[in-house]
Amino acid sequence: MRYYLVAGEASGDLHGANLMKALKKSDPEATFRYFGGDKMQAEGGYLVKHYAEMAFMGFAEVVLNLRTIFKNLKTCKEDILADQPDALILVDFPGFNLKIAEFAKANGIRVFYYISPKVWAWNQKRVLKIKRIVDRLFCILPFEVDFYKEWGMDVDYVGNPLLDEKASFTPNPAFREVHQIGEEKVIALLPGSRKQEIERLLPVMLSLTERFSDFHFVVAAAPSFTEDYYRQFTGAKKVTLIFNQTYDLLQVASAAVVASGTATLETALFKVPQVVVYKGNPLSIAIARMVVKIRFISLVNLIMNRKVVEELIQEDCNTEQIFKDLQPLLDGNQRDRMLLDYEELALKMGLPGASERTAKLILEDLER
User: Fold this and answer.
1) Residue 166 lies in a domain
2) 116-126 per-position pLDDT tens digit
């Protein structure tokens, strides 16, 4: 079978790569063409465009980069039409991918959506459009099944692919030695993978180094940027940069400050107490506060349906507040309470195998 995948950010690249791996096991003749990143490229096939050229965060940023977005959409549509795949697999990234789904459906291409768009957060009527343009929808959050049922749509819950990634991870015993970390306790900084979020969040994260002088700070750097890019923020601070070793970092970290996104759930799965932070364009935040219908922004809190981790958004994302919320997580009752909540979260998440289950369902559908 010929598969065409579209992933527009780092998390989509990760999940897309795992799905490609699973598809190859079930379909030895599988060929791939895709919009994605380094992890998908490592699985083979042809990378049409890297997600680093596509990811714009926030309403205002999207408006400012409309020309680039429209160009990317045109390229994607033309390439899909030329390739004529047996299956189009869209991975999250709804602002872009729902437009691609509509185009593919109109051109007779079977559309699978892996990792449901977060339509439960805002503009829920988009479900009606999804019903019309998506042939099969795979969800990775337990509460999404009931949400879609309320709109008369049957979806497949396949579990969460992060569990697959964690299950396949083998810690590097030399991680501390390689990065000259020694026996110091580590605070992990995960500022995200998009340029906008890195530039807004990393400086305030790094300001904590003066407050926790006994800890070794390590930044999980995005592979789409260079060390020189990060050094403009770290300067002379005693900070270690690591690339493509986030799980090794979480394996040794005592606590973390994490940009809102998939990384919050990964951090929880590694049982690392965390503070979640988010800063966006002020206009984007103002719009989001008017239209977003959810109580929380972090996946941890959303899945648990209650506050487990602190979420510091916009003006609350400052040195003083992060320090105040992070310090109790290094030792004591608040740390213990969060770790207990993480155990409950793990039970809700279930077992690994999301990628294999999704690959099986896609193949069964295509063979029918």
Assistant:
1) no
2) 988 887 778 88
Burial of 232 (0-12, 13-18, 19+ CB in 10 A): exposed
Q: Are 185 and 266 within one domain?
A: yes
The DSSP result for 1-17, as a single string, is: -EEEEEE-SHHHHHHHH
Residue 65 pLDDT level (bands cut at 50, 70, 90): low
d(CA 299, CA 308): 10
Q: Which two tokens stand for residue 14?
A: 């990760």
- By C-alpha distance, which of 237, 240, 266 is closest to 187? 240
Please report whether residue 80 resides in a domain.
yes
Question: Are 106 and 118 in the same domain?
Answer: yes
Q: How many CB atoms lie within 10 A of CB 290?
A: 8
**Claim to verify: residue 121 and residue 190 sit in the same structural domain:** no
| Tokens linked to 330 | 């290094």
> Residues 160-187: pLDDT tens digits?
988 988 998 999 999 999 999 989 999 9
What token pair was written down for 126? Answer: 């988009």
CATH number of the domain enclosing 362: 3.40.50.2000
Question: Under 8 Å CB-to-CB from 219, ≥6 apart: which residues?
Answer: 189, 191, 202, 205, 206, 230, 234, 239, 240, 241, 242
Which residues constitute the domain of residue 71?
2-159+353-367
What is the SS3 assignment for 264-299? HHHHHHCCCCEEEEECCCHHHHHHHHHHCCCCCCCH
Distance from first CA to last CA of the chain, Å, rounded? Answer: 13
Query: In the numeric block, which tokens belong to residue 15?
Result: 């999940």
Check residue 291 and give its pLDDT. Answer: 55
The DSSP 8-state label assigned to residue 222 in this structure reads -
Q: How many Å separate Cα 184 from the centre of its chain?
A: 29
